[in-house]
Write a structure and sequence with these properties.
222 residues, mainly alpha
Length: 222
Amino acid sequence: MINWFLALIKWPIAVLMMVMIFPTFQSIETVISQGVNSYVMVWFVLPFVLTSVGFFMLPFLSGSFLAIMEHELTHMLFAILTGHKPVDLEVNQNKGGYLSFQGEGNWLIALAPYFFPTFAFVVVLASLVYMGLDKPLPDLYWAVFGVMCGYHLSSTILEIHPKQTDFKAAGYIFTMAFLPGINLIVYGVLLSYACVGWSGIPSFLSLLMQYTGKFIGQLISK
């Protein structure tokens, strides 16, 4: 049932992601102008930039055990979320990994590692512990969050190449249409969270919907 639904919305989502690229840029620009201050620059943006640059200067890190494990765990997470039972998980240093599961699979499982920042998501969930203890998040938390976001950006870019079997599974044209837009949205969400906290996420999404509605209206009126 889930696979059928994902197949049904596959191309509409691809078109929507392409349409939303410009509105997402506008939304991120608004977030930066309104929410980025010296604190965010030091504790989130700086670790984010340094980690991204570091991984590009040391591309072999993208083939590390940890990077491959995160990639395959992301496949596994979305396999479970879409009703597939994982059967086997293999991770080989500098050789790649492999996840097998019951069922046909779908494009969301195939492309999940290229837009979903699993390690950063774990860091976000860790904030719930502090909320439960009624304690403010320490500065180091935001630095770790920046590192995880920077790692995801660089590792994702290093993993994108024409021979990627995941792209073949999802379809090359769909992959090229879907990934740019969804990645911009994801990083907009991450930046909004870094600037404001949990409340920044719905604020960003609301802003994105407003800009998207205006942009679609302009396209229709032409």
